[in-house]
Design brief:
InterPro entries: Inositol_monoP_metal-BS, Inositol_monophosphatase-like, Inositol_monophosphatase_CS. By secondary structure, the chain is an alpha+beta fold. It is built from 7 helices and 14 strands. It folds into 2 domains: 139 residues, Fructose-1,6-Bisphosphatase, Chain A, domain 1 (2-Layer Sandwich); 110 residues, D-Maltodextrin-Binding Protein, domain 2. Bound molecules: D-MYO-inositol-1-phosphate and calcium ion (3 copies).
Length: 263
């Protein structure tokens, strides 16, 4: 299968999975906790991941899958093709709001992002990118990002930033909140990355994200000129959890130098 067909195949799997997720609303959800009480997973997260794995394993037996729910492969290197999948990013939104959740998928080859997808299931918005080919919102090319000042920015952050943490001093956080035009929290890292890529947010930052939360978004972000690093301004390591910032280029520098404690 050539690379163009792989892109079409991935998009088709995503759309099929989304149809199943939407139709699940008529059935009763089975909700469980994972690492702690508020770390939720449902039968639909698990079934969606299994759906992808069943198809990918049958059609691409030598590709590996790194999925949040653990039905894929144990990944300790990025050799060959690796599909990084979050079957539902924003599970809490899925359960409580029935909207604002996404399927997030990155296809990597020898550690390089080849394709990235973020599908906002209820909005029916597919953000996609192919390495070196630009990024698209559905079939419309997304323009390159322009500059932004902190004063005119909307920054994606969640409430955990008000709890004392190692990345920011309380005073600096207050100053950032007072200086920025606004902050928003959408409860799905993938959607927040998609919002930066499409210029709705100017930056999004998180103290800890997993590879499947960000792998698809990183391919998209690169294609529109966004900068993605850890909060220590280091490259992301897709084999482990990282702190994370995606931002318009000049804003990335301003946010890290003025507000974040670089280690
Ligand atoms: C979570 C969401 C959330 C982010 C968490 C993630 P999940 O993913 O992206 O917005 O703050 O760190 O774990 O568990 O809903 O796939
Ligand atoms: Ca989860
Ligand atoms: Ca996630
Ligand atoms: Ca998830």
């Amino acid at each position: 299968m050539n690379i163009h067909m792989l892109d079409k195949y991935a998009k088709s799997l995503i759309k099929q999975a989304a149809i199943q997720i939407r139709s699940s609303f008529s059935e009763e959800l089975i909700i469980e906790s994972k690492s702690e009480a508020n770390d939720l997973v449902t039968n639909i997260d698990k079934e969606t991941e299994k759906f992808f794995i069943r198809h990918i394993k049958s059609d691409f037996p030598d590709h590996r899958i790194f999925g949040e729910e653990g039905f894929g492969d144990k990944i300790d290197n990025l050799d060959g093709y690796v599909w990084m999948l979050d079957p539902i990013d924003g599970t809490t939104n899925f359960i409580h709001f029935k909207k604002n959740f996404a399927i997030s998928l990155g296809i990597y080859k020898d550690g390089e992002g080849i394709f990235g997808y973020i599908y906002n299931v209820m909005d029916d918005d597919l953000i996609s990118a192919a390495q070196g080919q630009g990024a698209y919102l559905n079939d419309v090319r997304i323009p390159m990002l322009e500059k932004a000042s902190v004063e005119k920015s909307i920054i994606g952050v969640n409430a955990s930033w008000v709890i004392p943490n190692k990345f920011v001093q309380h005073d600096q956080m207050i100053e950032l909140m007072q200086t920025a035009r606004g902050t928003r929290s959408f409860g799905s890292a993938a959607i927040e990355i998609a919002y930066v890529a499409t210029g709705r947010l100017d930056a999004y930052m998180s103290m800890r994200l997993s590879p499947w939360d960000i792998a698809g978004g990183m391919v998209v972000a690169k294609e529109v000129g966004a900068i993605v690093t850890t909060l220590s301004n280091e490259p992301i390591n897709l084999l482990k959890q990282n702190s994370f910032i995606v931002s318009k280029p000049n804003l990335h520098e301003q946010l890290l130098s003025k507000y974040i404690i670089l280690k």
